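Weekly sync, protein design subgroup
Attendees: M.S., D.O., the rotation student, P.L. (late)

Item 1: inverse folding check
M.S. brought a backbone from last month's batch and wanted to see whether the design step gives back something sensible before we order anything. D.O. pointed out we never logged the input encoding, so this time it goes straight into the notes. Structure tokens as presented (402 positions):
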């Protein structure tokens, strides 16, 4: 085990996170036939789950401008740039080969597997035409990045590509060991099921006092007779004085408790719950998964595109990119309605703030905070009048009590 651990560390030592110091050499072991990386059913399930969930994200390119409404108050007007080149590439057609959900699933999967995913935006006369995911990152050094695309090496400026970096450093030697043990057990089980093994399955007790050689022959004949009958309907029989004792067979290399512990460590490393794969999770479990996993990668995508695609001038002019999951996909209409009602009529949020969360534009008058007393604007003469009437009534009640 010590040698295996040393070997893993020696292979990881030139990995991509040396970018923090000087340069990056993409770790070759990511591309090699490493069983735990390319064939682990548990890691494949985890990567696919997270990748497809994040790929459900929606993009909205907007331009936000400040204006003054008829009431003289400042109002932010959000104009959706639905037909912009950025919107078309992100949401309609990233390139000629991929649909958006397939493209972004591949990006997130590579981000999880290799801790780094690089996308090249292709421009034509200043217009974004397509975006492509690179096959491999060879080196990052002095503001240059060397990548492989269709087995061809290209050297590009770091600022000209979108580099999505995984903020969670999941891949480690310890994770390697965990997945190795789990997959070894699955492999052992598969081999035992598929092969015609002579492993002892049980003991047949016969009512006889024959010597060993004679007993052996009688037992063989008896088993053959039982199997011959069972071949037709898979049901055998035993005589009155016979008995069969089935033995417990262990196919793996670890106990059930040990495997459960290892799986728990694996799931916790990614911040997910096993019940997410069986679709019997609770609302709280999914909310925790969304906030600690899905939302993290949404922000990684949004921040990198926002800072690389928009110039400083464009950002100053109000150009923005929203990357979000449709709340109607993760919450019921009843829950959303209750949330909006409580937030609005408790004076915590106004209508425009709620509409922004749902991905809708602001409207004039929606910046006013309202109370739950007939939903009247706070601070208006109508509100003051109602409060005065309430104070008078309270005073009258107190006088009667005296």
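Designed sequence read out in the meeting:
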């Amino acid at each position: 085990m010590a040698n295996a651990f040393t070997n893993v560390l020696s292979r990881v030592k030139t990995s991509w996170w040396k970018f923090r110091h000087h340069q990056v050499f993409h770790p070759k072991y990511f591309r090699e036939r490493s069983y735990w990386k390319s064939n682990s059913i548990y890691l494949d399930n985890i990567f696919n789950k997270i990748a497809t969930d994040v790929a459900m994200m929606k993009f909205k390119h907007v331009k936000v401008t400040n204006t003054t409404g008829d009431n003289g108050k400042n109002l932010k007007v959000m104009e959706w740039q639905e037909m912009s080149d950025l919107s078309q590439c992100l949401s309609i057609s990233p390139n000629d080969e991929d649909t958006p959900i397939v493209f972004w699933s591949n990006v997130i999967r590579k981000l999880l597997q290799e801790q780094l995913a690089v996308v090249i935006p292709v421009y034509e006369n200043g217009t974004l035409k397509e975006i492509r995911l690179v096959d491999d990152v060879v080196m990052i050094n002095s503001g240059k990045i060397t990548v492989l695309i269709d087995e061809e090496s290209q050297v590009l400026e770091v600022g000209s590509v979108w580099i999505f970096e995984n903020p969670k450093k999941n891949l480690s030697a310890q994770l390697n060991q965990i997945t190795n043990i789990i997959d070894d057990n699955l492999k052992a089980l598969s081999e035992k099921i598929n092969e015609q093994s002579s492993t002892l399955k049980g003991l047949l007790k016969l009512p006889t006092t024959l010597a060993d050689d004679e007993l052996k022959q009688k037992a063989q004949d008896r088993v053959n007779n039982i199997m011959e009958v069972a071949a037709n309907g898979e049901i055998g029989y035993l005589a009155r004085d016979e008995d069969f004792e089935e033995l417990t067979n262990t196919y793996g290399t670890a106990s059930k408790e040990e495997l459960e512990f290892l799986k728990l460590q694996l799931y916790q490393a990614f911040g997910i719950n096993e019940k997410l794969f069986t679709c019997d999770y609770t609302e709280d479990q999914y909310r925790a998964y969304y906030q600690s996993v899905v939302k993290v990668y949404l922000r990684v995508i949004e921040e990198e595109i926002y800072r690389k695609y928009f110039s400083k001038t464009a950002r100053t002019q109000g150009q923005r990119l929203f990357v979000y999951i449709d709340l109607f996909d993760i919450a019921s209409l009843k829950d959303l309605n209750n949330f909006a009602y409580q937030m609005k009529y408790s004076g915590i949020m106004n209508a425009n703030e709620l509409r922004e969360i749902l991905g809708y534009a602001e409207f004039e008058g929606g910046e006013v905070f309202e109370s739950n007393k007939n939903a009247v604007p706070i601070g208006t003469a109508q509100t003051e009048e109602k409060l005065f009437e309430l104070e008078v009534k309270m005073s009258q009640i107190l006088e009667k009590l005296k």
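Discussion: The radius of gyration is 32 Å. Residues 391 and 397 are 10 Å apart (CA to CA).
Action: P.L. to compare against the previous round before Friday.
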